[in-house]
Specification:
The protein has 159 residues and is α/β, with parallel strands linked by helices. The protein has 2 domains: 113 residues, 2-Layer Sandwich (Double Stranded RNA Binding Domain), CATH 3.30.160; 32 residues, no CATH class. The chain contains 4 helices and 6 strands; from the N terminus they run E-H-E-E-E-H-H-E-H-E. The chain has a 4-stranded mixed sheet. It has a two-stranded parallel ribbon with strand order 5-6. Helix 4 links the parallel strand 5 and strand 6. Helix 1 packs parallel to helix 2 and helix 2 runs antiparallel to helix 3. The protein is elongated.
Length: 159
């Protein structure tokens, strides 16, 4: 397993890299083949020391990506939390995989697995808008989208 370390606002010492290596290698027991592992550790200057260190671990295995990000007051605790989170994601992923009984997991299973724990389990609707959908040509719709400076524009194709 290839393991890459990245540090932001701090130097990754041998002790930190060895500790993270031991923890991520344990995840190899749960996944058959981990192609690549990235460990990103950053130190932020915060008012509260409990969120000072952020650890993000990304695993690539057979085309699937699993990622966990955790914050804590110490680097080792953040690494522990992130690896525990990944172990939980892997067990959920493998459970869905074995229940389906198919060769590869579906896209929806992968998207659901990649969600970071700690977020609300039910979706949160931030805003609901209602629009009158107009019949426009694609050229008119493109002009309308550019005028509004939007990334997308809903319309009914008049052509």
């Amino acid at each position: 397993m290839e393991l890459q370390f990245f540090g932001k606002n701090l130097e990754i010492t041998d002790a930190i890299s060895e500790y993270a290596r031991k923890k991520t290698e344990k995840l190899g027991r749960y996944l058959s083949k981990i192609d690549e592992s990235k460990v990103e550790i950053s130190q932020e200057k915060t008012k509260s020391p409990k969120d000072r260190f952020t650890v993000q671990i990304t695993l690539r295995s057979k085309g699937n990506i699993l990622r966990a990000e955790e914050k804590s007051s110490s680097i080792n605790l953040a690494i522990d939390l992130a690896t525990d989170s990944l172990a939980h994601q892997i067990s959920r992923f493998k459970g869905k995989f074995s229940r389906k009984g198919k060769g590869e997991p579906s896209e929806s299973m992968i998207e659901e697995t990649v969600k970071t724990p700690g977020r609300p389990k039910s979706p949160r609707i931030a805003r609901v808008k209602r629009f009158l959908i107009k019949s426009l040509s694609t050229k008119e719709a493109a002009e309308q989208m550019e005028m509004l400076n939007h990334d997308f524009f809903m319309f009914m194709n008049a052509d």
